[in-house]
Amino acid sequence: xxxxxxxxxxxxxxxxxxxxAQSTWPDHPIxxxxxxxxxxxxxxxxRMIAIPMSKSLGQTVAVENAVGAGGTIAATKVARAKPDGYxxxxxxxxxxxxxxxxxxxxxxxxxxxxxIGQVVDVPMTLLARKDFPAENFAExxxxxxxxxxxxxxxxxxxxxVSHLCGLLFMSQxxxxxxxxxxxxxxxxxxxxxxxxxxxxxxxxxxxxxLIKSGRVKVFGVTVPNRLEVLPDVPTLDExxxxxxxxxxxxxxxxxxxxxxxxxxxxxxALKVAMQDPDVKRRLTELSSDIAPMDKISPQGLKTQLESExxxxxxxxxxxxxxxx
Length: 324
Ligand code: MLT
Prior knowledge:
- The structure is a single chain.
- The chain is an alpha/beta fold.
- The chain folds into 2 domains: about 25-120 and about 250-320, 3-Layer(aba) Sandwich (D-Maltodextrin-Binding Protein, domain 2), CATH 3.40.190.150; about 125-220, D-Maltodextrin-Binding Protein, domain 2 (3-Layer(aba) Sandwich), CATH 3.40.190.10.
- It has helices at about 1-25, 40-55, 70-80, 95-100, 135-145, 160-175, 185-195, 205-210, 260-275, 275-285, 300-320; strands at about 30-35, 60-65, 85-90, 115-130, 150-155, 180, 200-205, 215-220, 245-255, 290.
- Strands 1, 2, 3, 4, 5, 6, 7, 8, 9 and 10 form a 10-stranded mixed beta sheet that branches.
- Strand 1, helix 2 and strand 2 (about 60-65) form a beta-alpha-beta unit.
- The radius of gyration is 21 Å and the shape is globular.
- The mean pLDDT is about 95.
- The structure holds D-malate (MLT).
- D-malate binds near residues 36 and 42.
- D-malate (MLT) binds next to helix 2, helix 6 and helix 7.
């Protein structure tokens, strides 16, 4: 009996400590882990939403870049982090392609995370260095036919959307280019601007200002319709790459076991951030669509992730692309 009483008292104490911790959460800064390098598209979105999230949570949300292996190093780090609400994660659709791409994945996207909500959907653009010897898509096609073996295509590693977009491009064009991986498309873009690589497929959250200022050449957008902010840039589909479509969805996660009350507060802060007028204006300028409100929810993200894992798994296995 005495043992029972002691056990009961101990579990009550643990319960009230946990409850107290949840009611005071957050009482110190929160790390928002980003799986790619600073300055790139995921980092741009993270830093944009960290400001209003910090305001509504009353604590700094500090972006932390944990790069490598197409985003899987950061995902593993977050999956193993303490589930106390002080580590959260912004990743894109790489969460859904990783299980098929990596044979020895150290995390399970469907078992190791709590879902906070979907964030934003971003189109991509196919770019070349400014002095690339082709002025339009037709010239690019001709050039690649005869010089493809000399052309380099940058990406952010296996599982990055720049990699996926590059694979689709090469397969639809019937060419094999030399791929050059970076820790994110931030550094890949620096290499393009520095003329160290030839081509890059990258998200509009990074590319729109560079296209508008003429610092890079653009050959097309990866969605079925032209973008309002780049009306003169044709789609890849309309230039002959029929059905070419990549739009990059993003989600926010926390380690499995993060208390539901904390997830609720994080979700509320994310919703506030996505309605912030400055965030809305900047995302619109960068041709990015804020996720519909019902999808900025744990269930919205879970459903999206499950359906995307089912969509990409067979495609990737059929293509036979993977890391050992
Ligand atoms: C980044 O943030 O660097 C990109 O999202 C990487 C990628 O192409 O997936």
